[in-house]
Design a protein that fits this description.
By secondary structure, this protein is α/β, with parallel strands linked by helices. It has two domains: 178 residues, MOFRL domain (glycerate kinase, domain 1, 3-Layer(aba) Sandwich); 191 residues, Glycerate kinase, MOFRL-like N-terminal domain (Rossmann fold). It is built from 16 helices and 15 strands. The longest helix has 18 residues. The termini are close together.
Length: 456
């Protein structure tokens, strides 16, 4: 198979789109919920008593609460499956502005992401008010997707929203990974870290979760509002000190965490808490599933495949060098076009003043590494499945061996752009940004290196 750069770009984008399609909330929900013999049936459930089991009961009413980037799609599909006579009036949706749409039978809130805002606090309070008055005999169905942590901020009374925003900004800029960020969030929140389940007790609660984190830990996804929390106040303090931002963290946050560490404030709910006897969850889709779908699409198109990692994490530019080195070694002995595939979520430690996201930084760093290693006959994609990479309108980027030449042709230095964390403007100059718009889902990031030997 002989490929031009243009053909390779088309193939690599099609593989990415297959990965996004595999995370489609509508398909995932339909594989999980059905109505049979007057009872709602939930598949592949994890509860305090069983794993990968069915959960079913003749619940009087089902109350739907959805939050995350895929909340609208998840809620609309769920409402189509559950008979109207079982649905409580006015379900609730909280999502980001890009994914907001009207859904019949639901009140839809738009809130801030990736940084929380007052709209999210208002929405979180509405969730609290709704959940607290639901009677036993009903089911609370919580639909969770990526972005949930930012979208329903509900700081403890002694901490302000500004305190929480500053803390989140410090964590993001420090290069903290998602489980570290969420560890802190859970210990300064009234809903996260199992607190939503505590509010619902003793009413039956079940969460349908679209995972956007590596390893699919339900305690990390959206900061685990409906599941036990295995982290502690001491862990949260350790994150802030290890990331060297403890002294910059707002005083009220530090005081709250220290009070929790001393036992003055109760810990988040743990797995031994009786309240989890009435809760459960189902993982409906994940990054790993998307990686598998990309692999399948590549093989259908005639490419050999190699899964590099399903748990890619670490500093974006460093991981780009590692992946490029692996690709260079791979190219030295393959004889047919090959797709090297990965999934995960890297981080960026901000030292510059530019604009970009982790995927764009990954792509630009990969292009620079490929030039240094004299890698030839390649195209690389790194993109977020939600269609938005960091604070930009791009999902990520597709770069190739000519990317750096196009940047330099404009009189600019690719390395300077990278050093200033300004990958967005570098890749805009070269025409390599991947613009998909909002996808309505979120299962973290996907990467593909397409290698096509000259003699193939």
């Amino acid at each position: 198979m002989h490929l031009t750069i243009g053909q390779a770009r088309d193939h690599i984008q099609a593989m990415f789109e297959a990965g996004v399609e595999a995370a489609d909330p509508e398909t995932a929900i339909k594989n999980t919920i059905h109505f049979q013999s007057g009872r709602l049936v939930l598949n592949n459930c994890q509860t305090a008593y069983a794993q990968n089991a069915q959960r079913s009961d003749a619940w009087n009413r089902v109350h739907i609460v959805a939050f995350g980037k895929a909340a609208c799609k998840m809620a609309a599909t769920t409402a189509e499956i559950i008979p109207s006579f079982m649905q409580a009036s006015k379900g609730m949706i909280v999502t980001n502005e890009e994914n907001k749409q009207n859904v019949d039978g639901f009140i839809v809130h738009a809130a801030g992401h990736p940084l929380p805002d007052q709209r999210g606090v208002t929405a979180a309070k509405c969730i609290e008010d709704k959940v607290k008055i639901i009677p036993p005999g009903d089911l609370i169905l919580i639909l969770i997707s990526g972005g949930g942590s930012s979208l329903i901020p509900y700081p403890v009374p002694t901490i302000t929203l500004d305190d929480k925003i500053i803390t989140t900004q410090l964590l993001l800029a420090s290069g903290a990974v998602i489980d570290e960020i969420n560890c802190v969030r859970k210990h300064i929140s009234q809903l996260k870290g199992g607190h939503l389940a505590r509010l619902a007790h003793p009413v039956d609660l079940h969460a349908l979760i679209l995972s956007d984190v590596i390893g699919d830990d339900p305690g990390t996804i959206a900061s685990g509002p409906t599941v036990p929390d295995s982290t502690t106040f001491d862990d949260a303090i350790k994150v802030l000190t290890t990331r060297k931002i403890w002294t910059q963290t707002p005083q009220r946050v530090r005081k709250h965490l220290l009070s929790g560490s001393k036992g003055i404030i109760a810990e988040t709910p743990k797995s031994t808490d009786i309240l989890f006897n009435s809760t459960g969850y189902t993982l409906i889709s994940s990054n790993t599933i998307s990686v598998s779908a990309m692999q399948g699409r590549a093989e259908q198109s005639g490419f050999k495949t190699d899964v590099y990692s399903t748990k890619l994490c670490g500093e974006a530019r460093k991981e780009a060098v590692k992946l490029c080195r692996y690709a260079a070694q791979k190219l030295s002995f393959i004889s047919v076009p090959t797709a090297v595939i990965a999934g995960g979520e890297t981080t960026v430690t901000l030292t510059g003043r530019g604009t970009g996201g982790r995927n764009q930084e990954f792509a630009l760093a990969f292009a620079l590494a490929a030039e240094q290693m004299r890698l030839e006959h390649w195209v690389f994609l790194s993109a977020g499945t939600d269609g938005r990479d960091g604070p930009t309108d791009a999902a990520g980027a597709i770069v190739d061996a000519d990317t750096l030449c196009r940047i330099r042709a404009c009189g600019k230095s690719p390395a300077d752009y990278l050093n200033d964390n300004d990958s967005y403007h570098a890749l805009k100059l070269s025409g390599n940004l991947l613009m998909t718009g909002s996808t309505g889902t979120n299962v973290a990031d996907l990467q593909i290196v397409l290698l096509f030997p000259d003699h193939a």
